[in-house]
Amino acid sequence: MEPPERIGKYEVRGRLGEGATSTVWQAWDPFAQREVAIKVIHPEVLRDRERGRIFRHLLVNEASLAGKLVHPHIVQIFDAVMDEAQSYIVMEYVPGGTLEPFCTPDSLLPLDRLVEIVFKCTRALDYAYHLGITHRDIKPANILLAAAGDIKISDFGAALFTSGEQTRTQVSGVGSPAYMSPQQVREMPLNHQTDIYSLGVVMYQLLTGRLPFQASNNFSMVYQITHVDPPPPSDFRRDIPTGLDAVVARAMQKDLSARYASWEEFSHDLAQAFRNKQLKARERDFADRDGDHEGRRAGRLFLLPRRGRGKDRQARTHPRHPHPRRLLRRDGRHRQVERRPQRRRRRTDAGQDHHHPRRGAAPGLGSLPHAFLRRLPRSAGQPPGIGQRPSRIGLMTLSESLSAEIGRARGRPFRAAASREAGGGCIHRALVLEGGGERWFVKLNSAQALPIFEAEQDGLVALAAANAFRVPQPLCCGIVDGQSCLVLEHLDLQPVAERDGAIACGRALAALHRTTDTRYGWRRDNFIGATPQANTESGSWARFFADARLRPQLERAAVHGQALREKGESLASMLPAFFLDHRPQPSLLHGDLWHGNAAMCGNAPAVFDPAVYCGDREADLAMTELFGGFPEAFYAAYREAWPLSEGYESRKTLYNLYHVLNHLNLFGAGYLRQAERMIDKLLAELRG
């Protein structure tokens, strides 16, 4: 067959494949400016009286899903046309082929890659299930490999709809016998558990390179499906752990009561195989699905960071600090509430706006995966996509995926009965998930922002270890449904308005600053706002502040004119003289302590959104006076607990210059004149 020049409005570019009933063409959509795949049903099939009836039903099924199944691991349907001349479905183009080439003994996938694929299938099919859709034809030919190593489930034409009026579109006698469940081959009523069985068969075949039942005809196949137990996959592949044998066996149970009752149980057991070290989890190069970035690393959704080399040094200085994991017990009395927006940054959820992302890969990050997901590497500058809100896959879908991850991270099931949008600031999106008497605060961004959340998690753990402030305890972070996320406990927070609360905050800050180190900086880089913040350790505070704070901001600010950069460089070069009589201890700092990042949790002062490092305690205190400040009782309580050294007012201007320059780089020229005035003032003082 010669390829047509056009199919409707679509420009045909080549044939992708051809079967007994349809041909799939690669085409170009000139209106949406994208590659598409078009499945054209052969006209003779539709003219056949019996087969035509079935395939019209299948077309109606698939066409009805246009714009509805929107999930990272499901092929999206864009358009459908059904008429006498031509009938076709227009769908997302996925260039990588199917899983069929990996179903032979000489081309098997590595176990971790295989489990990752099956895990993603469980998430996609769970999403479809919650929309009332059962696929009914899960097989390797319907699982496609995207160009960047991801997967997409295709061909929902045989789908069973269990919600609304669409129930009438279901047809019987469809599917591939080798992958059908006992209930499907017997034409019994079906639900999502038939897909669970079919995915179990796919997993068996990917593990072994053979189908679980070998038969020369459909009658023999049906008999084995309904009466025979297959040998375990490990009989054919010696490196398969018993944990995966058990997962496959439960997915393929003939009795519905013994089979996985939910997709969450299935995906949980897949993750459990890794947590029990029954599989050798390893990182591998893995390109990001959403771009052309090379050298990505396969990642996981992690529990909280374990003690790393930086923690060892802190433990020597403060032996009373408990292990970070012990600090992460959630107290049901502490919850979070919303409050009025702040003027400086758009916030509607006072509890954890967390609009200051953190950056970098934490040393000693825990090794317990909660999903087979990518963790993206650090880049030299601001990662792409930061500050761009993630695509909204659908609130219910996302909350269900998050619920599963939360359940795995805490070791018992969790399902969000309600979810609502919360203020995530100008950088992140945020959700509050509620269910079973629990609430969780979830921050979301594009996948590229995952290092930000990892670093923020590490900063919160460091603040908790100081035991001065109440902080929201992180549960886990990773990639869920194509978005990076950080899951935190949900706190009830109120503004620091009353005198007693201000006094408590002042004393807590002084106590935090009593946590000291021997060098300035921190064990990792992080972020201030959306700006990378270097924390290379140094024995000189003047050198650290010039090289890790002022100069990077001045370089970014060069777009506003060389005059600012030149004057700023003059200031940076003179900082050793500025600190001749001031030798501060390297105190643990919050790093971004404006009034919007502090609150009261009951009677306890709380902080969040840290940009943690060790430096002059006055840098934290100076930041509290920027953008509105705290009540006077706060400062009085701090000075009573730890008096300030002479010259604080001059140093305050220097320390706040860093934040004003950061705002200039983040939010534009409205901060230019303020930055220039501060530099001029400091230079005048130094030149005396």
List keywords for this structure.
688 residues; 6-stranded antiparallel β-sheet; 5-stranded antiparallel β-sheet; alpha+beta
Structure, explained:
By secondary structure, this protein is an alpha+beta fold. It contains 19 helices and 23 strands. The protein has a six-stranded antiparallel beta sheet. Helix 7 (242-251) packs antiparallel against helix 8. The longest helix has 20 residues, at 111-130. The chain is elongated and about 95 Å long. The protein starts with 5 loop residues before the first strand and ends with a helix.
Secondary structure: elements and pairs:
Elements lengths: L5 E2 L2 E9 L3 E8 L4 E8 L1 H5 L1 H15 L13 E6 L4 E6 L18 H20 L2 E2 L8 E3 L5 E3 L6 E2 L20 H4 L6 H17 L9 H10 L14 H10 L11 H13 L21 E6 L6 H9 L51 E7 L19 H16 L7 E5 L6 E7 L2 E9 L3 H17 L7 E7 L2 E7 L9 H15 L12 E3 L2 E3 L7 H16 L5 H12 L1 H4 L8 E3 L8 E4 L2 E4 L5 E3 L1 H8 L7 H10 L6 H20 L4 H16 L1
Antiparallel strand pairs: 1-2, 2-3, 3-4, 4-6, 5-6, 7-10, 8-9, 11-12, 13-14, 14-15, 15-17, 16-17, 18-19, 20-23, 21-22
Helix pairs in contact: 3-5, 3-8, 5-7, 7-8, 12-17, 13-14, 13-18, 14-19, 16-18, 18-19
